[in-house]
Amino acid sequence: MPFLVPDASGEAPVRCQACGASASTDLNRKKGKYQVTLKWGRNVMGNEFSEDYIHGYDVVVVNENLTIVDEPMHNVSSRKFPGVACCKTSAYEAISIKGNWPDGAKYFMILPYQRNDAKDEKFRVPLGTTIKFIDIQDDKEQKKVTGTVTVSNMTEDQADKLYKNKDTPKVMQKSIAAAIGETEITADNIEVTLGKPTQANSSSTGSSRRLGGHLPSEKSWSVAVEYVITLPEGYTKAFTKDSIDTQKLAKEIETRAETELGIKGLKVSVKVSDPVITTVGTPADPTGAAFPLAGSCFSIALAFALAGRHFFA
Fold it and tell me: Could you say which architecture CATH assigns to the domain 142-280?
């Protein structure tokens, strides 16, 4: 157990772990399937909060013995946090992730990692913060809204950066939720899929080319975002294309692209398709849960208490 026992100096090598983790209610009510939002706080290293030595966090699935039973390839890049060092429990988010929940699975586990890009290597701590998850299996009836948001008026470089940034889905989920403006529908209810950048009057990517003898505008590139919204239980309002405020959506994308993705100067246009509403599942008894600590900020002492026996000093 070389990773878990103290070295010659008496220090335990495993000293990194996320604090204050929690999970939303499972939105996929079929047995063996999950759709969930995970939130966790800053990395604790030794006796202080620090992201200085890590590049991100992997999300894996483990059993009751903390053995990894599935690696669904969800990961989040680390960030820098100015101001007071505390465990804000929503510092990191994996929004509306989905997959298969294996037999015998018990927890999600958050594992900090380091990269060595020069050698294409990745180093990950063997144990991390656990998040208990309950696979809801009642197959209760749910309504889902499917549609497309097309974000256009971008240069090829802007569209390419938007498409390739792994945090873009989170930006789109939050932007769509804000543009809907309903307290019942949050980013947790929304899953998105990005299409490759396309140029006006073209169905493929590539450098600008003459179409019909005319050179396309520099800002002729767009990215299509397919979305699926799981409407919350009891939601009775009619959902149409007008339910998404396109002006607000454009502004949200521009602002978040700059602050969260580092893409500056976006002035996008947004087009929303007519949504398709479908019903899945069958009626069943309601089940609910909440984030008990979402958005809070607390001390290093409480962060240790939350991590429990899986924290290595």
Answer: 2-Layer Sandwich (3.30)
